[in-house]
Each structure stands twice: as C-alpha cells, then as structure tokens.
C-alpha cells in the first residue's frame, strides 16, 4: 500500500484570503495598491519569497528583502484568520489513515507558517512527515523536495496529491503517480484528476 504525500495550500486548505490580506498589508506599507484575491491565487505555489516578488512585480517594482521579511512575520504571526480546510478533506484523511497509509505533507510554504497552520486547524495529527519550503535546499518542482518527505515517512513509494504543476512535476521527477486537484489555485496534469476531495480515497486505491 502506497504512502500519500499531500501539497498544503490549494489542496488541503484554502489559505488564499489570509495570504491576500497579509500580502496587501506589505504592499500598502510601501504605498502600493492592493491585489485582488484572484490575482493572488494565481501567484501562490512557488513559496513565500516568489509570492512577494510576484506581488511587487505586479505593481511595477522589485521586492526588497525587507518586504519578504515583513510578509513572513505578519503571515506567520497569525496565519489562520480566514483560512479553512476544504470541505471533504477530513473524511478523506480519516479514510486513508484508517487504511493504514503513511501520510505526509510536502509544501512550498515556509515551515514556521506551515506548523502554525497545521496546529491551528488540528491537521498535524494525520501526518508522519511534514516538509516545508525552507526545510531543504530544494523546493517543488525539484523532486528532491518531495524525496525528503518520503524519507521522513521512511518509504520509497508514494502517490502525490496537489493543485499545481509543481506538484505534478516533482512526482514525475521521482517516477511517482500524482493526482491533480481542481479546487486549488494552479493548473496541472497527473495520472488522475480529482474534482472534489471525496474522490481522493477511491482514486488513491486505484493507483495502488
Ligand atoms: O506557499 C506556497 O507558495 C504554496 O504552498 P503549497 O506548496 O502548499 O501549495
Ligand atoms: Mg498548492
């Protein structure tokens, strides 16, 4: 029975409202107009540093180290005001856990914020390994980032579940199957496609 490695933002949780409001505070501090939720959704997926870079680039300027640090501080202080677990995720995780599958997370979100979010949403209990965007020198789509999550679970085989091409490409780089989730922020193509979290246990059983 294969382990399952989940992406976090856009797959297990919808963090876009909190990310948008904190990113807009950082933009406002430098006198820039806010971004819309949809603009920010399309910028999520490559970690916090790239997110801040994209936000400032959208305002015609280059982000500085202090902008990134301000975002990390503001976000990690209180990352779960409007962040929610997608409907159907908890039952899916319970099913997979009850099947005895090792479960892990590989996210590009920095580790401190990841841990805050998992604790606040009572999600940490499901996962035997959590690898954040600054846990290794690599980030998805680099397959070595995903490999660190497998190593944390002490497994060599897994199914990746994510909402972004980065997730699909990291899995492909290790020769692992992936399920693309349509409810998140990105575009991508895996061995299977889920339209709702309730479909995940069945798709995972099919993939092994
Ligand atoms: O922080 C991000 O950019 C996205 O994080 P994710 O890898 O959990 O989707
Ligand atoms: Mg994601």
UniProtKB/TrEMBL annotation:
* Any one GO molecular-function label of the UniProt entry: phosphoglycolate phosphatase activity
Q: Report one GO cellular component.
A: cytosol
Enzyme class label: hydrolase
Catalytic activities: 2-phosphoglycolate + H2O = glycolate + phosphate
Annotated InterPro entries: HAD-like_hydrolase_sf (IPR050155), HAD-like_sf (IPR036412), HAD-SF_hydro_IA (IPR006439), HAD_2 (IPR041492), HAD_sf (IPR023214), PGP-like_dom2 (IPR023198)
Q: Pfam families, from UniProt?
A: HAD_2
The EC number(s) given in the record are 3.1.3.18
* This protein's pathway: Organic acid metabolism; glycolate biosynthesis; glycolate from 2-phosphoglycolate: step 1/1
Organism superkingdom: Bacteria
An example GO biological process term is:
DNA repair
Give the record's family classification: Belongs to the HAD-like hydrolase superfamily. CbbY/CbbZ/Gph/YieH family.
Q: What is this protein called?
A: phosphoglycolate phosphatase
Tell me the classification of the organism that encodes this protein.
Bacteria, Pseudomonadati, Pseudomonadota, Alphaproteobacteria, Acetobacterales
